[in-house]
Amino acid sequence: MRPVDLEAINRQTAQRLHDGEWDHIIYYVLQSTRFTNLPPIEPALSAKAWKEAGSIPHVVARRMSAFLTAKPATERHTAMRSMVQTAGQLRAQYERAMQFLYDKEWAPRSKLGAALRDHVAALYQTRGHSSDTNLSATYGVHTGLTVIRSMAPPNSIRRVLLIGPGLDWSPRTALNEDAPPQSYQPYALADSLVRLGLARTTSLRIDCVDVNPRVVDHINTFAQGARQLLLRYPRIDDDWNAYFDGLGKATGKRTGDTLEAGKAAAASIRALRMNILTERTAAASYDLAVATNVLLYFDDHQLGLAMANTAHALRAGGFFLHNELRPAIEQWSRELDLPTVHARTVRIDPTRELHDGVVIHRR
Predict the structure, then answer these.
(1) Which of 113, 167, 252, 277 has fewest C-beta within 10 Å?
(2) What is the predicted pLDDT for the residue at 178?
(3) Do the Cβ atoms of 288 and 361 come closer than 8 Å?
(4) Which of 97, 124, 151 is at the close of a domain?
(5) How far apart are CA 224 and CA 228, in angstroms?
């Protein structure tokens, strides 16, 4: 591994975090129906219109004005409005966000197969850090845990490191404001571990680490509130339906699509601010580490740093579960004595034929 400039990486992380927060604001301005009656605008289509016109479209300018002048309507609107100082700042960040979307969605239309995948992967390795999460991502984790169950004794998972837990803030598409911001992964992970017999709620501790203080604060205050999560998921196949229909019942209470996370499970979860590229845990004490939709933000060298710091956190025999399938994973797993013991894909959206990766390493 080549020499590491930790200060440079931390500066880059701070800039990417800044850009990611602004991406959320822009997506909210384009899609929310809570601060204006103007029709929502799909961000990728807005990027195409902006590029073709060479200026900010009139419909976008009207939404920007409504966002800046309307009385704060929701928790999201209040928080995001407080982050915007001037209209000029908002316009500049809109153009930056639209350039990325145009480069991702429209510029590579002539590319196919591996060339398209490489193009998109390179963009994600420089884009802003998104804090968003999606409930469907928990299915791949649960699938991986069913594999780990065949390799680990019952109730042997006690300490878990969850890297980049995420927060449902303002996604690029399909913004839904029926519920306040939510973080699904910590509670779904706790439930799957107990449901599969890998852990007991009474002895389980999940440490969530994230570079975004907003995510950390949300998780650390969740247990003191109503502890409610709104679960929405499509019907796909028997395995998928069985997982989601049972989600939350091992550690909480389900009433239709509403999950009240159990008090003990919620209390077992805490969050810490940490950069997995430049920081590591004090001791190798974790039985399991999980990272979903995190490693794709790192280039191959940064990927090595993240995997090295994760390997350091694991006790001998501990597992690392993630969803990144690129070739560099295998290279680093060999060099770090963190061999891959399982890899597969799972279907998460049949209408668009979307699949997620499931990769397991063991230290």
Answers:
(1) 113
(2) 87
(3) no
(4) 124
(5) 11
